[in-house]
Each structure stands twice: as C-alpha cells, then as structure tokens.
Amino acid sequence: FFLMIRRPPRSTQSRSSAASDVYKRQTKEGVLCDENVRQMRLNILDVMLHTDSTHRSGNQMIQAARRCYQGSQYTANPRLLEPVFLAEITVPMDASGGVYSCLNQRRGIVNEEVQVYGTPMTVIKAYLPVAESFGFTAHLRSLTAGQAFPQCVFDHWGIVNGDPLHTCLLYTSPSPRDS
Q1: 90: helix, strand or coil
Q2: Which of 5, 17, 19, 142 is deepest in the core (most CB within 10 A)?
Q3: Which of 165, 172, 102, 158 is nearest to 129 (CA)?
C-alpha cells in the first residue's frame, strides 16, 4: 500500500494510519463476494482535505477512503479466482483415453504425460478446478474400469473465465392467472 500526499496537513500520521486501516479492511472484504483480495495495489497520488477541521474527523476520512477503495476495485476490472488442483493420475496406457475424456468433461487441462519406464503404466499430470473435483475419482474409475488412481494436491489459484460484473439476467413476466 502506497500513500503519497503532496501537501501533508497537520496530523497526517493519524489520517494515513486511518487510510491504511481502511485499506486492510477492504482487502479482507472485497467488493465482489466479501473474500480476500489478491494482487491489488493502490496508489493515492493526491488528497484534498476540507479547510474546516470539523470536516476532517476520523469518521469522515474513513468513509471517504472506503468509498475511494471500493470505487477503485470496481473500475479495475476485478476477476474471481478459484482454487486449482494438480491431479496426478496413474493409469495403464490402454485406459488413458478414459482419463482424457473425464478431464475434458470437468474443465481439466493436461499438463504432462510420462510413461513409467519398464511398465505399461502412464502418469498423467493435469490441472483440475476444485469445484470440478467432487465425484472425480468415482467418475474417473467408471470411465477406466477401475484402473486409474488419482492423487489431487492444491497447486494454484486460477482466474475464473468471464466478467463477474456483467449481468445477463433473464426476466420473464409472470403469466396472468386464469380465474
């Protein structure tokens, strides 16, 4: 967090600490879904304060800073993040088609495929969104006749496709009741 004030008024320390506290609170409760904000940087280049000291109280400073931070988050094209597993799947080579089919149905992205030397086994490493992992093992085993053995470990946060602020709501007017 960078706070740069051109003309520091009296008691700048208390005002900048209040702005810093508001910033910490806003990054813990983002504007989209009250979750932690990641990879956010905010530069305040100029601050104009009211000449009357009654309009520069802590509460008014906090509210102004809060609105400033929320507005900057809305205009910065925010995106939602989802957790992504690294799935390591051990499967015989003749059943690997079922693994690819299962991953395609669940938004999985194959990262690497390595054949285990001296065996008919293949290790497939893929990225799988955590939301798609529920029931993944049972589905995978049904497509490979029980021959695939997955291990999933959290790997990174991935950006969810689409704009979370874009609203496409379908509204259908209620049909009149026949009386």
Answers
A1: strand
A2: 19
A3: 158
Instruction: Give backbone dihedrals phi and psi of 31, rounded to 5 degrees, phi first.
Output: -75, -20
Crossing angle of the two packed helices 136-143 and 96-105, in degrees rounded to 10: 140
Bridge partners, residue 89, by sequence: 124, 150
Contact between 69 and 22 (Cβ < 8 Å): yes
pLDDT by residue for the chain (179 residues), tens only, comes to 344 444 444 455 555 666 677 777 777 777 777 777 777 777 777 777 777 766 666 667 777 777 777 777 777 777 888 899 999 999 999 988 999 999 999 999 999 999 989 898 999 999 999 999 899 999 999 999 889 999 999 999 988 887 777 765 444 555 555 44
